[in-house]
Write a structure and sequence with these properties.
The protein is of the alpha/beta class. Strands 18, 19, 20, 21, 22, 25, 26, 27 and 34 form a nine-stranded mixed sheet that branches. The protein has a seven-stranded parallel sheet with strand order 5-4-3-8-9-10-11, sandwiched between helices. A six-stranded parallel sheet has the order 14-13-12-15-16-17, sandwiched between helices. α6 crosses α15, α22 crosses α23 and α30 packs antiparallel against α31. α11 links the parallel β16 and β17. This is L-arabinokinase. One of its GO terms (biological process) is carbohydrate metabolic process. It holds the Pfam family GalKase_gal_bdg. One of its GO terms (molecular function) is ATP binding.
Length: about 1000
């Protein structure tokens, strides 16, 4: 058999024998079943027996294939990606379900599958793309081949980075299972697949058409001149309410997967569950749905314009989306517009597209021939090691390859050769935004402010200059974010730029919300935000924004935001809204409604950190924004590393907006307002130290702040012989995460218990006291029971005001280790925290979270005092010991992680080892930072060459153990208040 260059098949020799195929199909979506169907159909047509192992409905196969050679075995051997809704993957649930589905019963699965494969006398195992099938085939002595456009080790790899490395064994096991596969038949639109080294590319696999466009329309009673959109969100009914006015006049919508009880308007037609989708797609004028291989391949094959809504956290999507757009077949719809029915501009634009995919679509036939020849012994791959014999750390490889195309694995030409089109670049080039190397910040006149010699600010202005010289009509492909940003500003008008750094939590951490003293260092990495205000009638607008304005009957103030680096985080690069959405009549909407507004579309929830600053200014300062606003945000503070990327975005955004609107807001007040953004709009229960450091910090100084609520005590100059580093563990951190929130709840529970206990003791003391007579010899006896002290503890607002000795002497014995939410609420009522809630069904640790801030405040006070002590190794040892104590207290609260523990242990090993150089240690302590549960560690050491060498050694050793090379944060920079703002305007030619 020979596969021609055009994808056709020539010189096909009939097989000398009847063959038996075992075809395993993953338990994820209809797309896998529908493409497998086409391969199976050709194998059955050739007279072979095919045993399909699947969890998909039988009708997918039996409506297309009626043959005794087709055998369906209903078994679920993997779970794919678990979806929280039709458009959002639940990453942690996906890993946990895979663990229960495929890991726990693994030995039983292998035994069963080997016995079954031997019982049917299978000649070849085909997997799309069930990992354990490849291992079972090897155990049974049968060859196996995978057919797919993605593999689960790549998909799960990033989930592990987010969910924690304790799931890493899942990815390793999957990659090892794939290594037993002989080779991969790779479908177009493929992702990097690190576990496969031997690859054969095949054409698109699509289902054939049964009926013509006119036949289908005649059966449905639809005239040829009626425009039809097919609503296709896969096999998972969305349950959304659909309304008549959402379609353009005269249009009809065919709805796939509607529930039996769902009522539809007259211009929507409910399709049968087993409707043959390819015929319906070919009879439609465009499709509205989510991206998957099945929908994309058939849209391309039948040249159907595809209006797609981004699916969050599924790593296959960017690759298929790029292929759609490459062949002029796709338009992205914002999820908010989907849910609110703003469909018309997208549908009208879709029918103007001219899809141009002209590649072969006979992948099912080609794959069937290759599988047939492989089953009779033909070797397609010779003299090569198959599979992942040289396995790398698939976790990190998968995570990085999505962001760095062209490294180590094959990526389609249309992907790797069009980097500007796809927008996927290495994560470290956050300010290198495709600006011309010849462009210069000197293209702008600085009307106010000073760059203060900051290289990142210079780079940001260069990137703006590159945008200013860009022609959006240029035939050269661009990143989505860059194309959107190029029409964001009127370059002849003033633009305001603010800068806010991230922070390294040196001491204090989660004790901030309990009122502790904290010591924070603003880091070198920062977020830049550019803001321009404009008259609503003159603002440059994106096409769908213009369409919405026309539909609403005129120009209203509009907010448009572009976030650079969005493709690196698998989120939407743009956000827009009418500013009137924030208003209910003449008053702002509630915080709860604002939070709900940004929660509608997880891929755009990032916009809450930027647009939320506008809402807080409207709510708290009663600012009314009658102008339109354009905002560009670009941050080099990496997300999920525990260095306060969110605070830097909030502070930079509010600072730039305040400058543009002439609002005089002091840095401290601005930080408190930004905390409201995070607490009330985003919904993350953080304290205020992040925003305070970003707003009020100064370079090479520790911000010493008492968080009651935010009193800057002083700026402590870092002694020249001491240095701090941040080391990223690679485990994603979020203060919105469950662990952080539950520890905060436990802390506030402990505070309530102490206050109640103090009140009880106070009542007993007062009732036992005899009123004093004027002649009593000892009036101090009245204070025998510390009445004033008990009064202050009974009314205590901040837990950190309780000294450790009082906690141990009076209260510690009565604080439980754990309590259920229901038991707490029944005995104490509320825990009195405005930003968290007690879940009656959960159990909360109380003792460790209560103890931590009481002792942490004491440790921070001691640390601050020691900084000014004599410059000796004893000083550094004492400082390091306090840092270690903080780390282990975090762990006691349940906020540790394997990665951060490993980094701290490496610091300890290097600190205490005996070296041939002699002399004392250079590193003295390390601790987890910020909200914990991953993120970064802070390391303290001598400011010398040797300590820097040891930090790099830790980097290398950590990578050797985990596969992940930690980011090193070193250096400092000014906070937003110290930076001020720049007012710039492009120089006239």
């Amino acid at each position: 058999m020979r596969v021609r260059d055009d994808g056709g098949v020539g010189e096909v020799t009939a097989p000398p024998q009847h063959l038996v195929f075992a075809y395993y199909i993953t338990g994820h979506g209809f797309g896998h079943a529908t493409r497998a169907l086409e391969v199976v159909r050709h194998l059955v047509a050739a007279g072979h027996d095919v045993h399909v192992v699947t969890a998909a409905p039988e009708f997918v196969f039996t409506t297309e294939i009626t043959s005794p050679c087709l055998h369906i075995r209903k078994v679920l051997l993997d779970c794919g990606a678990v979806q929280a809704d039709a458009l959002t993957v639940d990453r942690l649930a996906s890993l946990e379900k895979y663990h229960q589905t495929a890991v726990v019963p693994r030995e039983s699965i292998l035994k069963t599958e080997v016995e079954w494969l031997n019982s049917i006398k299978a000649d070849l195992v085909v997997s799309d793309v069930v990992p354990v099938a490849c291992r079972a085939a090897a155990d049974a002595g049968i060859r196996s081949v995978c057919v797919t456009n993605f593999s689960w080790d790549f998909i799960y790899a990033e989930y592990v980075v987010v969910a924690g490395h304790h799931h890493r064994s899942i990815v390793w096991q999957i990659a090892e299972d794939y290594s037993h596969c002989e080779f991969l038949l790779r479908l177009p639109g493929y992702c990097p697949m690190p576990a496969f080294r031997d690859v054969i590319d095949v054409p698109l696999v699509v289902r054939r058409l049964h009926k013509s466009r006119s036949e289908v329309r005649k059966e449905l009673g639809i005239a040829d001149d009626v425009k039809v959109v097919i609503f296709n969100f896969g096999g998972q009914p969305a349950g959304w309410e659909l309304k008549k006015e959402w379609l353009p006049d005269g249009w009809l919508c065919l709805v796939c997967g509607a529930s039996n009880t769902q009522e539809l308007p007259p211009n929507f037609i409910k399709l049968a569950k087993d409707a043959y989708t390819p015929d319906l797609m070919a009879a439609s004028d465009c499709m509205l749905g989510k991206i998957g291989y099945g929908t994309v391949s058939e849209a391309l094959a039948y040249k159907l314009p595809f209006v797609f809504v981004r699916r969050d956290y599924f790593n296959e999507e960017p690759f298929l989306r790029n292929m759609l757009e490459h062949y002029q077949c796709g338009i992205e719809m914002i999820r908010r517009d989907l849910l609110t029915g703003h469909w018309k501009p997208y549908l009208l634009r879709a029918i103007t597209l001219q899809p141009c995919y002209d590649g072969p679509i006979n992948g099912g036939e080609v794959a069937a021939h290759i599988l047939q020849d492989t089953a009779v012994g033909k070797k397609y791959i010779s003299g090569k090691l198959s599979g992942a014999r040289r396995l790398r750390d698939a976790i990190v490889l998968g995570y990085q390859l999505q962001r760095a195309p062209g490294r180590d694995v094959g990526i389609p030409d249309w992907y790797s050769l069009s980097e500007k089109e796809t927008g996927v670049r290495p994560a470290h080039t956050s300010h290198d935004m495709n600006g011309s190397s010849e462009s210069s910040f000197e293209d702008f006149e600085i009307l106010h402010g000073d760059m203060q010699g900051l290289s990142d600010t210079m780079s940001f202005l260069k990137s703006l200059s590159g945008l200013a010289g860009n022609d959006p009509r240029s035939p050269e492909k661009q990143t989505r974010e860059r194309a959107a940003a190029s029409v964001l500003f009127d370059w002849e008008e003033e633009i305001y730029v603010a800068r806010a750094p991230g922070r390294l939590d040196v001491m204090g951490g989660i004790a901030d919300y309990s009122g502790s003293l904290v010591l924070q260092m603003p880091i070198r990495e920062a977020c830049h935000v550019a803001v321009q205000r404009s008259d609503p009638t003159k603002q440059k607008q994106w096409k769908h924004t213009q369409a919405r304005q026309l539909a609403n009957g005129g120009a209203v103030p509009v907010l448009q935001i572009v976030s650079f680096g969005s493709e690196l985080s698998n989120r939407a690069p743009t956000f827009d809204m009418d500013l009137s959405d924030f208003m209910d009549g003449d008053k702002p909407i509630s915080y709860d409604k604002a939070k709900e507004y940004f929660s509608l579309d997880p891929s755009q929830k990032w916009a809450a950190y930027v647009a939320g600053t506008i809402f807080v200014l409207m709510t708290e300062l009663r600012v009314r924004f009658t102008d339109s606003m354009s905002i560009l945000a670009s941050s080099s503070v990496p997300e999920g590393k525990g260095v306060s990327s969110s605070a830097s975005v909030e502070v930079a955004s509010m600072s730039a907006i305040a400058a543009a609107y002439g609002l005089n807001i002091a840095p401290r007040e601005l930080a408190l307002l930004c905390q409201k953004v995070e607490n009330r709009v985003v919904g993350a229960p953080c304290g205020v130290m992040d925003q305070m450091t970003s707003a009020c910090g100064e370079a090479n100084k520790l911000l010493a702040m008492v968080c009651q609520p935010a009193e800057v005590k002083e700026l402590v100059t870092i002694p020249t012989h001491i240095r701090f580093w941040g080391l990223d563990s690679g485990i994603r951190h979020s203060v919105g995460g469950t662990d952080y929130g539950s520890v905060r709840v436990g802390t506030y529970m402990g505070r309530k218990m102490i206050k109640c206990a103090a009140s009880d003791i106070l009542s007993e003391s007062l009732s036992s006291c005899v009123p004093m007579q004027s002649g009593d010899p000892n009036p101090e006896e009245y204070e025998e029971h510390g009445v004033d002290l008990l009064k202050s503890e009974a009314s205590m607002e901040y837990l950190c005001n309780l000294p450790p000795h009082r906690y141990e002497a009076v209260y510690a014995k009565d604080i439980p280790e754990v309590i259920t939410g229901a038991a707490f609420l029944e005995k104490y009522g509320d825990h009195n925290d405005a930003v968290t809630q007690v879940d009656p069904k959960r159990s909360y640790c109380v003792k460790a979270p209560t103890r931590h801030p009481i002792y942490e405040n004491f440790r921070v006070e001691a640390f601050k005092s020691l900084l000014t002590a004599a410059k000796t190794d004893e000083q550094l040892s004492a400082l390091g010991e306090l840092v270690y104590q903080c780390h282990y207290s975090y762990n006691a609260c349940g906020l540790g992680s394997d990665g951060t523990d490993r980094l701290v242990n490496l610091v300890q090993e290097i600190q205490h080892r005996k070296t041939s150089r002699g002399g004392g240690p250079s590193l003295f302590g390390a601790k987890i930072t910020g909200g914990g549960s991953g993120g970064s560690v802070c390391v303290i050491g001598k400011n010398c060459l040797r300590s820097s060498e040891e930090i790099f050694e830790i980097q290398r050793r950590y990578k050797a153990a985990t596969g992940y090379l930690p980011i090193v944060f070193e250096g400092s920079s000014p906070g937003a208040g110290k930076f001020g703002y720049l007012k710039i305007r492009r120089r006239s030619a």
